[in-house]
Amino acid sequence: MTVLSQLDQLVATCHWIGAKGWAPATGGNMSVRQDDRHCLLSESGKDKGSLTSDDFIQVEIASNHVPSGRKPSAETGLHTLIYRLFPQTGAVLHTHTVNSTVLSRVEKGNALILQGYEMQKTLAGQHSHLDSVAIPLFDNDQDINALAQRLEAFHQHTPLRYGFLLRGHGLTCWGKDVAEAQRHLEGLEFLFLCEMQRRLLEAK
Q1: 3-203 is classed in which CATH architecture?
Q2: pLDDT tens digits for range 66-86
Q3: How far apart are CA 48 and CA 13, in angstroms?
Q4: Which of 45, 53, 84, 138 is the most buried (most CB within 10 A)?
């Protein structure tokens, strides 16, 4: 599939995300790999529900350099880190949903553990509800370079898969292409909703 068609798919996914209210105001950021050296990343300050292909900016993966001089998302360094860590990654999605944001604050451990849900099988490589899926959880940081360094250090001893949560911030997830990244996002959000409801019911 060509980069252009992947970008068109990403624009459609952004509109889908916007319609669901998963990137309110100008929150969130999305990207697609252009080639081995570049990705195309959503421009800062744009409503994700109305993005066009012209709202994506070329960024050098190795250096975060933007040849055009335009302003990509403030979290560019997290996208490029994922593309460097996982050369097979074709798209990255970052959303600000209520469930991911609240769960990231309620969970005090260093990961949100999901277990017992059939929908875990929406995640690549997951085959049974009996398995457990750990979504790593990191403290938020306005210093994106420092945050990227913490993520990379974590990955050295506990490989990242599917995505991660930032406390009080939201979910970042990825996939081999736009379709898989969208499936991971939708599956994880369903699982987060189930986990939120389970915790609320058990607290009564």
Answers
A1: 3-Layer(aba) Sandwich (3.40)
A2: 999 998 888 999 999 999 999
A3: 9
A4: 138
